[in-house]
Amino acid sequence: MGLLCAGADYFHGLTSWAYRNWVMLLGALCALVANVGLSQLISLSIPVLVAIYPVAVALVLVTFLKGWFAHPRRVFRGVLAVAFLFGCLDGLGAAGMKMDAFSFLPLFDQGLAWLMPTLLACVVGMVVRPSEKLAAEVA
Questions:
Q1: Other beta carbons less than 10 A from residue 69's beta carbon
Q2: Are 20 and 10 spatial neighbours (Cβ–Cβ below 8 Å)?
Q3: Of 48, 55, 46, 47, nearest to 115 (Cα)?
Q4: How far apart are CA 33 and CA 133, in angstroms?
Q5: Whole-angstrom distance, CA of residue 60 vs CA of residue 64
Q6: What angle do CA 137, 138, 139 make, to 5 degrees?
Q7: Are 40 and 32 a contacting pair, CB within 8 Å?
Q8: pTM (2 d.p.)
Q9: CA-CA distance, 65 to 67, in Å (whole number)?
Q10: Which of 62, 114, 122, 132 could be stapled to 54 by a disulfide with Cβ–Cβ 3.0 to 4.6 Å?
Q11: CA distance 59 to 41
């Protein structure tokens, strides 16, 4: 009940929709998920988790390396976008789709196709220093 009320309060603050409506909607969604069954729920969540975990790992990485970037905001966006894109490929593979076209990627067979492109994007973010004129235009 606490999570239901907290969620409804949060979404009510974001939108103009009534708090009561949010409680009803979130309650119905919770009831639907609860009746799916644990095995079904796990089988549905695995591809999503496989797609999201590269982003979480990349976020930790770029947070530790923030001081090395000339423009951290741009590097964060770029690295996380690369991690998400390649994480989605792994997620689609975990969902059962044939992803043989991407088997040329390093560590693809281990479900780590996202690792090398994400590290490369991180290194590019550390190495590339835009000119002062470009930096002044962006700021």
A1: 19
A2: no
A3: 55
A4: 53
A5: 6
A6: 95
A7: no
A8: 0.70
A9: 6
A10: 114
A11: 26
